[in-house]
Amino acid sequence: MSIDLNTLKTPGPTITALTKPFWDAAAEGRLTIQRCKDCSTAVFYPRPICPYCWSKRLAWHDASGKGRLKSFSEVHKPGNPGWLPAAPYVVGLVELAEGPTMLSFILPGTRSLQVGAMLRLAPTAIGGRVLPAFKQVEFGPEEKPK
Amino acid sequence: MSRSKGAIVGIGELKPQRLTSGVTTLEMIAEVSRLAVRDAGLEPAAIDGLLVGPQVGETPQHVPATIAEYLGLAPTMADVVDLGGASGAGMVWRAAAAIEAGMCEAVLCVLANNREEAAPRSPNRNPIREFDVPFGASGANISYALLMQAHMAEYGSTARDFAMIAAAARANAQLNPDAIFCGKPADVEAVLASPMIASPLHLLEIVMPVAGGEAVVVTSAERARSLPKAPVHLLGAGEKVTHRAVSQAPHLTSGPLKSAMARAFAQSGTQAGEMDLLSLYDCYTIMVATTIEDAGLCAPGQFGAWLNDHDLSHKGAKPLNTHGGQLGFGQPDLAGGMTHVVDAVRQLRGDAGERQIGKAGLALVTGNGATMSEATALVLGAA
Ligand SMILES: [Zn+2]
């Protein structure tokens, strides 16, 4: 993948009033998710009620941007033709440190990807908008993953 | 064994075609419904229940009413079953339950799809469209690839383990002249040599979309006695729906079929090991792998060893998808799940011809929709 992702003609999000804070934050390079004020559970994707206790008292909080790779796929034949120029590229399931899992774009790194890899938020312009993509944490020579 | 909860007394099936031209879904529904009702030995007017799928192409709403009008039926029970690939199996227990509830006596369960050259892209607006598609994840291939990668990482299962499932489906399809891959076998090496679509998923581990149709007629066990064909009884059923998007799946290496199958076995007083036929939903190889494990046929993560130990052909002790599965037969969209019901009925009737299994007393049929999200399991028994 050597093309500029921002030039892709890929479908953007179908933003609603409910989800706008998430995408506004994404445009500023932040990852913001909801947390329930009643059961304290972090919630992704945005909802009008907490899916765990049905409370409506949900508040936005910036996430740490740390995550763990639960699974990934190198996509050779994209389902949407807008992604063809970028293939092969990698998408993954990112378990956020706050608890919920989101699907995201995984940027290429220097090491091969493994399930369980530690990730960090890497806001990236894709298809004309900044999306909360992720990148594998690169450990220095003295650092070792736990 | 528990008493019958209803019986399948008629089946219909259209030969799969890669493409249709100028044929409406309604026309195909009419054709396959006619086959099933005739096979049942019933007059159309005897059909007083109607279960249909949502993807009727030209009819976004009021689908049962449109089909009833088209077929000249006036059902006293009609519904859309919207469980993706689990819709076919999901219809069967609903039909039996509706009969038991006294709403109707004979239910037509029908799914069909046309497949025109230029299919429109539908404008969706849902969480997957908003939170998965912009990151490059469109379509089921990527979702199932993520499930497969997770299984490999958790249990060390190999590409070869998964390829055995596709190769076995192709082998069984060689005995079904209607199968889209009849005459086109593919061994494990061929599966592994096929193009990578979304790692670790190869092309030949994915069903081929086709046009087609499948239908069954369900009536009471009592009514079944007066009809011409040997009834196939519904002995137990289970269903569970847990999520839609793969990112929201509670587990990646086990699915809702686990509890759906457990309920079906409990209702029927049977166990997985007693099944004479496994008619398991197989949109992708990973789906069969997970179902074998969730059924308790082997320990979690051990499907590869289990496959190595069992002959999956009609001659073996564990016949699996003797019609070729959808991997060998082709996937006529939502009707694909119903192929597993229709093949099980043929086997339990002793009507499967060249591919007839030996002992044919019990069959497990599974249906699956979305990304291992919607699940229905049936235990069927011969008369
Ligand atoms: Zn809550």
From TrEMBL, chain A:
Protein name (database record): DNA-binding protein
A Pfam family the protein falls into: OB_ChsH2_C
Domain (ChsH2 C-terminal OB-fold) ranges: 60-120
Location of the ChsH2 rubredoxin-like zinc ribbon domain: 23-58
Domain of life: Bacteria
Lineage summary: Bacteria, Pseudomonadati, Pseudomonadota, Alphaproteobacteria, Hyphomicrobiales
Alphabetized SUPFAM superfamilies for the sequence: Nucleic acid-binding proteins
Native source organism of the sequence: Mesorhizobium hawassense
UniProtKB/TrEMBL annotation, chain B:
Domain of life: Bacteria
CDD domains hit by this protein: SCP-x_thiolase
A matching Pfam family: Thiolase_C_1
Single GO MF annotation: acetyl-CoA C-acyltransferase activity
Annotated ranges, domain Thiolase C-terminal: 238-381
PANTHER family: ACETYL-COA C-ACETYLTRANSFERASE, NON-SPECIFIC LIPID-TRANSFER PROTEIN-LIKE 2
Protein name: Thiolase family protein
Natural source organism: Mesorhizobium hawassense
Lineage of source species: Bacteria, Pseudomonadati, Pseudomonadota, Alphaproteobacteria, Hyphomicrobiales
